Amino acid sequence: MNVKKDEKGFSTRSIQPDGMEQDGHGALVPPIYMSSTFVFPSAEAGGARFAGEERGMIYSRLGNPTVDALEHAVAGLEGGEAGLAFGSGMGAISAVLMALVESGDHVLCSDGLYGCTFGFLSMMKRKFRVDFSLADLSDEAAVRKAMRAETKVVYVETPINPTMKLVDLEMVARVAHECGAQVVVDNTFMTPYLQRPLEHGCDVVVHSATKYLGGHGDLIAGVAVGRKAFLDEVRMSTLKDIGAVLSPMDAWLILRGLKTLSLRMERHCENARQVAAFLQGHPKVQRVRFPGLDDFPQGELAAKQMEGPGGMISFEVESLEAGRKVMDHVRVAKLAVSLGETTTLIQHPATMTHSVIPAEVRQGEMGIADGLIRLSVGLEDVEDVIKDLEQALEKI
C-alpha cells in the first residue's frame, strides 16, 4: 500500500495523531461520547447519511466519535488509509475474513494460529465450505506449493503464537498478489511500534487491542487497518450486521494506552531480552524461542522487518507435568491467558489457548509441544521476574 510516510516520530503521533479533530471546547483529551444514537439536523440530512452521501454520526453501531478517534489513531500508526474498531480481537479477525471469502474459497494460513482463529476457520469450513490449510510461510517454495486457484486470503501470524516462528511478509505478499490473493496479518504480538506489515506489501492488519495497544488488561477490543474502501465495506456489512461493536469507553481507554505504547514496548523488549537470556542458560529449560536471542534461527529476517523482539517468549521444559509445576509455583508472574499488559503472564498453550486444536495438528503441523510454556513479560523489575522463574523451575 502506497501511503505517504509521516515526518513526525512514532511517539509524537501516538500522543498527537495527525488530523485528530479537537472538540468544540478545546479539550486536550478527546471526550467520551456515551451516546447510542445521534440527532439529525433534518430529515434530508438523515437520509443523506444513510445513503452515504453526507458525513456524520447515525448510530454507535455504525460509528461513534470516540471510536472514530481510535480508528484514526491506529491507522496512522500502522501507515494505513483507515482503521475499523471491534468489540474484540476475534471480532476483527472474523469480520475481515468473512468480508474477503465466499463459499468454496480457500484461506492459506501460517503453520501456527491462535486457537480461536483456528476454531473460527474450522467453523467456516464445517458450516460454509470455506476451506483452510496450514503451510510453512517462511519458505517461498512451500508458499507457492500451498496456493490454490481458490485461495483468496493468506492469513499470517508473525511471530507465530506461540512458537515465535517468523514469516517473511514481503515474500508472502508478493506471492499472494501474483496469485490474486490478499494478505491479512495479525500484528498483535509486535504492535505498529515494532512492525508495520502494510509497509511490506500486506493488505490488512488486525490486532487484538486487548493486548499491547490497551496495555493494562482492563478491556476487550480489536482493530483492523487497511484500505478505506475495503474497511467501509466491512463497516456496513460484517460489523454492522453481526455487531461486534466497540464501546466508546473502551475506545477511550485504548487511546490513553497508545500514549505510552512506545515506552511500554521498549520496557517489554528489554525485560524479555534479560528473561530469555536467563532461561536459555537454565539446565531445566530445553529450548527458548525469542527473536531477541543471538542464536535465533531467523535473526536476519527479524532484523529486516521488525524493530525489536517484542515481549513474548516461549520455552520448553521436559513434559506437561513439568510445565504445570512451573506454572503452579510462580508468584510474580500470574497464571493467566492474554498477553501484552503490565503484569507478567504465564500460560500453557497445549491445555489453554490452543487446546481447541487437535493434538496431531498442534504437535505435528504447529510444533507446539506439551511442555511448551508461553510467557508474556511485563513491566515489573526484571530481577523479580527472573527470581520468580528461577524458584519455580527448581520445583521440577
UniProtKB/TrEMBL annotation:
<feature type="compositionally biased region" description="Basic and acidic residues">
    <location>
        <begin position="1"/>
        <end position="10"/>
    </location>
</feature>
<dbReference type="InterPro" id="IPR015422">
    <property type="entry name" value="PyrdxlP-dep_Trfase_small"/>
</dbReference>
<dbReference type="InterPro" id="IPR015421">
    <property type="entry name" value="PyrdxlP-dep_Trfase_major"/>
</dbReference>
<comment type="similarity">
    <text>Belongs to the trans-sulfuration enzymes family. L-methionine gamma-lyase subfamily.</text>
</comment>
<protein>
    <recommendedName>
        <fullName>L-methionine gamma-lyase</fullName>
        <ecNumber>4.4.1.11</ecNumber>
        <ecNumber>4.4.1.2</ecNumber>
    </recommendedName>
</protein>
<dbReference type="GO" id="GO:0005737">
    <property type="term" value="C:cytoplasm"/>
</dbReference>
<feature type="modified residue" description="N6-(pyridoxal phosphate)lysine">
    <location>
        <position position="211"/>
    </location>
</feature>
<feature type="region of interest" description="Disordered">
    <location>
        <begin position="1"/>
        <end position="22"/>
    </location>
</feature>
<dbReference type="InterPro" id="IPR054542">
    <property type="entry name" value="Cys_met_metab_PP"/>
</dbReference>
<dbReference type="InterPro" id="IPR000277">
    <property type="entry name" value="Cys/Met-Metab_PyrdxlP-dep_enz"/>
</dbReference>
<keyword id="KW-0456">Lyase</keyword>
<dbReference type="GO" id="GO:0030170">
    <property type="term" value="F:pyridoxal phosphate binding"/>
</dbReference>
<dbReference type="GO" id="GO:0009086">
    <property type="term" value="P:methionine biosynthetic process"/>
</dbReference>
<dbReference type="GO" id="GO:0047982">
    <property type="term" value="F:homocysteine desulfhydrase activity"/>
</dbReference>
<dbReference type="GO" id="GO:0018826">
    <property type="term" value="F:methionine gamma-lyase activity"/>
</dbReference>
<keyword id="KW-0663">Pyridoxal phosphate</keyword>
<dbReference type="GO" id="GO:0019346">
    <property type="term" value="P:transsulfuration"/>
</dbReference>
<dbReference type="InterPro" id="IPR006237">
    <property type="entry name" value="L-Met_gamma_lys"/>
</dbReference>
<dbReference type="InterPro" id="IPR015424">
    <property type="entry name" value="PyrdxlP-dep_Trfase"/>
</dbReference>
<dbReference type="Pfam" id="PF01053">
    <property type="entry name" value="Cys_Met_Meta_PP"/>
</dbReference>
